[in-house]
Design goal:
It comes from Citrus x changshan-huyou. Keywords: DNA-binding, Transcription, Transcription regulation. One of its GO terms (molecular function) is DNA binding. Pfam families: HTH_3, MBF1. By secondary structure, this protein is an all-alpha fold. It has a domain of about 70 residues: lambda repressor-like DNA-binding domains (434 Repressor (Amino-terminal Domain), Orthogonal Bundle). The protein is built from seven helices and no strands. The N and C termini lie far apart (about 105 Å).
Length: about 120
């Protein structure tokens, strides 16, 4: 008969692949066992958007449109008894843009402000 080997054999398990580690079950198991888990959320991943543009526009908005400018536009428009749509037609812009200027949400544009000054007869 053959001999039986009494020494235990050691089997090595292959390391987990990165895709297997991202599995929610693997993450939960690691959390339960107390292993360190790093989670990173990617913002706008897979999209083709520029991120720096929004920050620049917000800075321009903070610097440019002052609350008194938006009030001036609104008072002058109401003084001439014009609606936002009428003013928008007069300056060849959308009525939504006039609304944004009056609410202080629009990024100031010199040409649009010049058209508003001319239509309303007020220095902005």
């Amino acid at each position: 008969m053959g001999q039986v080997v009494s020494e235990p054999g050691v089997l090595h398990k292959s390391k987990s692949k990165a895709q297997e580690l991202r599995n929610p079950e693997a993450v939960n198991q690691a959390l339960r066992s107390g292993a360190p888990v790093q989670t990173v959320k990617k913002f706008d991943a897979g999209s083709n958007k520029k991120t720096a543009g929004a920050v620049v526009n917000m800075r321009k908005l903070d610097e440019g449109t002052e609350p008194d400018t938006s009030r001036q536009i609104q008072r002058a428009r109401l003084g001439k008894k014009m609606s936002q749509a009428d003013l928008a037609l007069n300056i060849s812009q959308r009525s939504q843009l006039v609304s944004e200027y009056e609410n202080g949400k629009a990024v100031p544009n010199k040409t649009v402000l010049a058209k508003m000054e001319k239509a309303l007869g007020v220095k902005l």
